[in-house]
Amino acid sequence: MSLRLKANLFFAVLIIIFVSIMMGREINNTRRSVWEEIEAANRVAAQVLGQVGVIYRYSDDKQVVSFLQQLGRVRANEIEYRDQQQNLIYQSPPSPYKKDRFAPQFYADLIMPKVDPKVIVLNDGVITVTPDPSRAILDGWDELTELMISGLFALLITNIVGFFFIGRWVKPFETIREAIQALERGNHKIRLDNLHGKEASSIGNAFNKMVGSVNETIVAKEEKAKAEALLSSQKQFAHQLQTHIENERKDLARELHDELGQSLTAIRAIASSIDKQAKDNPQLQQSTQLLVQAAGETYDGMLRLIPKLRPIAIDQLGLEGALLDMFNRLKTANSNVQFSLSVNFSKKSEDIELAIYRIAQEAINNALKHANPTKIDVNLDETSDSIILAIKNDGQSPNQLSNTGHFGIEGMQERAHFLGGELSFEIHSSGGLIVQLKIPKS
To answer: Can you state the angle between helices 350-370 and 407-418, rounded to 10 degrees?
Structure first.
């Protein structure tokens, strides 16, 4: 049901209630007026005829009838005169007022007062005075009919006028409803012009602001989706690039180990053989010894370089074995640093294990290079919902934590981000730094 129809029905109900109240008051006033008139007229007629009865008590019928004819009709009363045998001798003439018209019986029953007829006994007959309020009731019915017609006319006029004006008043709200439906269908560019009326104008302004906010939210979501898609693309590209780099490192490490390692071993063997044969040539023997030394140092440097390119131990021993192998090499090169390793970890994919290894490797190298620690603790723990790697050193605390210009830290963060993890740095008040990687399990 529309607001316009509801408003018209509301006014119609109000008018009906008002007319009903007025009709009730009219009926009540008519009942009281008829009651007072009939009672008074009946009392007067009874008193007059009572006095007449005393005068004409012993007179014959002709004298009584002559008097009654001269008296005629007493207002709102019917007079009958009957003899001792109840034969009708005289009846008052009917009222000429609104002749042959009567109110409906239901209305007459509603208005009719209960007044008993008056009986006057004469010597030769009986005079009966009966109240007749039909004319007064008819007047009340006519007034009530006029009120009903006026009420219906007022109802009709009010609805016509109300329908017209209410239609104009609610037209802006219909425009607002159509705009809301258009917005619901996906038209986010819709706007409302200035609407007539204080309330409609306020709602229209609020609607325009709401649509503006919705558009801003949609644009923000679209930009966010684009950014996420771009980030995902960049993330995928970074992963592919990192994978490619790792593969290249793996191939390079294998080539160094297999090809260069064998060549250096052959050079050392040949140089040693020449050295044995050049006992009589000190100058040549000195050169071959330098060659053997250089080949050995190159071989040792290659062995130190290979784990940095690709931790071969991770393929053979797994992540825990690779970390332990790295610790053994670091202990040899850094005898003044105490290393501690704790691992509670089950085998994972190559990407995860390699990323954890690289982050641990970078964090330890940074500590050894910049913090001068005496102790480095590495703890790798696996819980029901995440993998946590913590590298703690007791060295010098950095003045600030920033990855600007530090490609190692950037690489650590990129690896953590690719795994959906979080890399954090915490400086202890007592000195030292904790690097923590937390990777949620999918």
So the answer is: 150
